[in-house]
C-alpha cells in the first residue's frame, strides 16, 4: 500500500473478488425469473418416403417428411442474463426394437428479443430417418417444441414451449 | 535527478494515508458492485452493470493510486541524528 504498484495491485485484487461476487449474483438472479413461453405445434402432414441410403448405394432407407406450422412466444425467456435462445422441434418415439428415439428435425437460434415471436411454416430442416431403415409398425411420435436458454453467466436451462396434443402416426410408405 | 524520478515512480504515502486508501478501496468497491447489480437488474441490462462497475473502478483508481497530498499529511517525524547518543549507550 505504500507505493503506486502496491496500491494498484490492492485495488485490482479486491476488484476481482467483487467481480466474482457480482457474476455469482447475476447467475443466481436468472432463477428469479419464471418464464412461461407459450406456443402451438401443428403438424400439417407427415409422409414417409423410401430413398437411397446416404452411404450405401444399393440400400434403401425410409425418411419422414414433416410439414408443420409453428407459433411461439418466447419473449419471457429474454431477461438481462439471456445471451441467446436455442429453439428446436423434437420428434420422440419408440422404435420397433423398443429404443427411445429423440430426433431434432428443426431448430433456430433466437438472438434478440425482437425475434422472440416465432411464426414458422415449413418442413423439417434435418433428415428424419429411422436407424433400422423403416418406420413400419413404429408407434406414433410426439412432436414438441423445446428451448435451451444460453445465459451470459450461469447455467443453461432447458424447457418445453409446446407439444402436439396427441401423438402422430407414421403413414405407410408413399 | 535520478532520485527525484525514483520518488515520482514510487509515489510513497504515509501510514495514515495507507489506512485511508485501504478503507476507500473496500467501501467504494463494495458499494459500486452493489449499485451496479441493482441498477443493471432494474434496467435489465448487463451493459449498465459493467458500465457502472468499470467507470467507478477507473475513478477510484484515479483517486487512490497517485500519491495525492491528502495521503501525505502525516509524515513520520524522525528524530534528529546528531549527538551520537546511541553510540555512548553502546559503550556502557
Automatic annotation (TrEMBL), chain A:
It comes from the Eukaryota. The chain crosses the membrane at residues 12-33. InterPro entries: SPC3. PROSITE patterns: PROKAR_LIPOPROTEIN. It is a single-pass type II membrane protein. Essential component of the signal peptidase complex (SPC) which catalyzes the cleavage of N-terminal signal sequences from nascent proteins as they are translocated into the lumen of the endoplasmic reticulum. Essential for the SPC catalytic activity, possibly by stabilizing and positioning the active center of the complex close to the lumenal surface. Essential for viability. This is Signal peptidase subunit 3. It comes from Amanita muscaria (strain Koide BX008).
UniProtKB/TrEMBL annotation, chain B:
Pfam families: SPC12. The chain crosses the membrane at residues 24-43, 50-68. It is found in: Endoplasmic reticulum membrane. GO terms for cellular component: signal peptidase complex. It is a multi-pass membrane protein. It comes from the Eukaryota. One of its GO terms (biological process) is protein targeting to ER. InterPro entries: Spc1/SPCS1. Keywords: Endoplasmic reticulum, Membrane, Transmembrane, Transmembrane helix. Belongs to the SPCS1 family. PANTHER family: MICROSOMAL SIGNAL PEPTIDASE 12 KDA SUBUNIT, SIGNAL PEPTIDASE COMPLEX SUBUNIT 1. Component of the signal peptidase complex (SPC) which catalyzes the cleavage of N-terminal signal sequences from nascent proteins as they are translocated into the lumen of the endoplasmic reticulum. Dispensable for SPC enzymatic activity. This is Signal peptidase complex subunit 1.
Amino acid at each position: 500500500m505504500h507505493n503506486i504498484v502496491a496500491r494498484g495491485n490492492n485495488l485490482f485484487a479486491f476488484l476481482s473478488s467483487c467481480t466474482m461476487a457480482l457474476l455469482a449474483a447475476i447467475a443466481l438472479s436468472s432463477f428469479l425469473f419464471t418464464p412461461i413461453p407459450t406456443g402451438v405445434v401443428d403438424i400439417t402432414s407427415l409422409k414417409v418416403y423410401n430413398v437411397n441410403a446416404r452411404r450405401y448405394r444399393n440400400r434403401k432407407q425410409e425418411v419422414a417428411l414433416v410439414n408443420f406450422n409453428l407459433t411461439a412466444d418466447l419473449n419471457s425467456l429474454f431477461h438481462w442474463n439471456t445471451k441467446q435462445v436455442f429453439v428446436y422441434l423434437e420428434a420422440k418415439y419408440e422404435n420397433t426394437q423398443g429404443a427411445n428415439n429423440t430426433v431434432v428435425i428443426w431448430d433456430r437460434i433466437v438472438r434478440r428479443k425482437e425475434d422472440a415471436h416465432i411464426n414458422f411454416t415449413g418442413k423439417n430442416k434435418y433428415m428424419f430417418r429411422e436407424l433400422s431403415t423403416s418406420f413400419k409398425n413404429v408407434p406414433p411420435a410426439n412432436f414438441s417444441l423445446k428451448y435451451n436458454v444460453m445465459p451470459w453467466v450461469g447455467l443453461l436451462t432447458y424447457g418445453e414451449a409446446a407439444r402436439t396434443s396427441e401423438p402422430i402416426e407414421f403413414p405407410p410408405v408413399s | 535527478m535520478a532520485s527525484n524520478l525514483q520518488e515520482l515512480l514510487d509515489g510513497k504515502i504515509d501510514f495514515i494515508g495507507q489506512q485511508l486508501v485501504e478503507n476507500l478501496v473496500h467501501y467504494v468497491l463494495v458499494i459500486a458492485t452493489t449499485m451496479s447489480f441493482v441498477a443493471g437488474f432494474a434496467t435489465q441490462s448487463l451493459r449498465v452493470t459493467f458500465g457502472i462497475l468499470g467507470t467507478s473502478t477507473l475513478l477510484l483508481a484515479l483517486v487512490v493510486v497517485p500519491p495525492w497530498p491528502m495521503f501525505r499529511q502525516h509524515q513520520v517525524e524522525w528524530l534528529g541524528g546528531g549527538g551520537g547518543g546511541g553510540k555512548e549507550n553502546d559503550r556502557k
